[in-house]
Target: Competence protein ComEC
Amino acid sequence: MALSTLAACIILGILPLLWLPALPDIRSIWCVIISGCLLACVRPRFLRYGGITLLIFAWGVLNAMQALWPTVNLPGSNRQVEVIITETDNMTRHQAKIVSLNGKRLFPAAGITLYGQYLPVPICTGQRWAMTVRVRAMHGQLNDGGFDSQRYALANHLPLSGRFSDARLIVPTCSWRADYLQSLTHTLSPYFWRPVILALGMGERSALESPVKEIMRQTGIAHLMAISGLHISLAAMLGGVITRGIQFYFPANRVNWALPMLTGTLCAIGYACLTGLQPPALRTAISLSVWATLRLSGRLWSPWQVWLCCVAAILFIDPLSILSYSLWLSAFAVAALLFWYQWLPMPAQQHWLMHSSMSLIHLQIGMTLLLIPIQLSMFHGISLSSLVANLVAIPLVTFVTVPLILTGMLLHLTGPPLIEEVCWYLANQTLALLFAFLRWLPAGWINIDARWQAAAWVPWLMLICWRLSLWCRIPALCLTCLTMLLLPLWRADRPGEWSVHMLDVGQGLAMVIERNGKAILYDTGVVWPGGDSGQQLIIPWLRWHALQPEGIILSHEHLDHRGGLESLLKAWPELWVRSPLGWAGHAPCFRGETWQWQGLTFSAHWPLPKAQMQGNNISCVVKVEDGQHSILLTGDIETQGEMAMLSHYWQHLQSTLVQVPHHGSNTSSSLPFLQRVEGKAAVASASRYNAWRFPSLKVIKRYREQGYQWYDTPHQGQITISFSPQGWEIHSLRDQLLPRWYHQWFGVPNDNG
Model:
């Protein structure tokens, strides 16, 4: 069997892990293994390939089961564990590997994130601690088009989080990487661009400040500022060049052509270890090892065969890397590079300087055009200034800054201090020059909505059609394909339809009422040090779904309901705001207020204009209706407010659906309130691991006994209610619209605290 065919079987066997709604049980896996073994032994080649693919599929599923084992067996009670620290912010957040559970070795070690507590002595990576921990299975907020934290956690082998009640240091020795990093950080302390140097040389991005990250995002050079294939390849090249230089002093019969390649590969692996074996660095080290092995085989391998073998090796060694966004980005970028140079090669130039300049421009144009699909899918936007920025940044960083940093890192171990200082000074100056140029460029980032995802493939289609002359041979097919790619841009709003989206913002509330491409928000989520729901979630969500917000209804002043208000008003200053707070610029939201928007009627039912209540009970209760269906938005109103509202105004509260008051607290959702509303379904917003254990089991039971369907964001993620003249329906993202095995509710079934 050809090696490239085996690589294709490996890739096809692992790919289903991206889309499986649930993992098969162990009996099904045994059936798959037996079937695969039988097919792999038969004579027809295609059946043999199918059998190998089935065996690889079983291998991938077994790895996924192994990764989920800690989420099933460790949560629920205090555990006595021994951990090795793998990463730390030197304050309250640490990543570790659980190597021992209740005195027994745990293999493979389970990754865990410890948060919220200081350890009793200074911490560094490599230390071994004995701890009493309360373990929780990973659980993340899930919104359409948002960051998938559960997928990220599994891709990085961090299925657990937790807090410790007792910690005792067993082995105080730091890892050699931690000692080296500490020494290097001290040496670089006089230099302004130290955080960027550490990011480029050691992969330490945590020290990068927000303004620097924003510049890199706006100009599209963030890919250069982390340990990537480029850096590892440069380390390999440096090792190979040094070895080749030494070989000039060897007798001819002692010169081995493979030695520089092997030395370079070993240097790449060593450098990847020095940078902490971060996923991009590890993948590059694996790819270089595969490439070296293929070269040593003595056969001629095409670039696509090498690409297949490298991707297959990465997936076979770590099947869960199929969930990694960075792997998809790296593999897609290399594939685009191969495609561009094969389908539109660079014309030959006589002058070397002209050839080098045109080659760089040719490369950057190709990568800019062909990477648009993956950029839109992952980042929901593109940088218009990336072409110019990368034309300067790529050669400067690749051929000047990174070699200076690598030389400085090598000299930090062995070389004269004076030459090392020269390297750091020059590296710092090149970065100063680079960022001065980047600041001079206009902000080029533009956000692009989901409708353009298909249209992003147009450059690929045009290049194929042009190169194969398909425009002349089969113009109808080309035009049909182009039309299908552009069709989503013409979104027709269906008359009479509107939607309400309860976003999964954790322990807060943010709802979007959508109609005809416009939106009104009811509450704006939570705020935390350094960020808020508006900036991190709501604004990107609105832009990704091509919705234009026109107003905000603020139920009350608590930070879990108005956390994103300032960010939203900064993004759209023309937004109107209604609230019961009486703040400057806020329109009133009191009993008796009614208004129309996009054919929908909004009516406020609480509070009274001069109500003496405070806090949760001042929440503005709003009913949204289209004449046939309605939803009652209640904020955080509690029993006292509910009863006061019912005492005089109960006849107007009947509604099809209700937003559960106060996140499902037992101090709200009184029985008379539920009976008066007479709704069909209830939707609640809460965080799974919240200190108040919302929503209350008693409240859930109360709603169900009154005939309500129950939905909540901890279980369903984003919840969307669609209304039409024909009726209404609820779609939940976690278990209906996007069911994936890595989106499931892991750990203790009723654990919500």
The two ends are 53 Å apart (CA to CA). The longest strand covers residues 104-115.
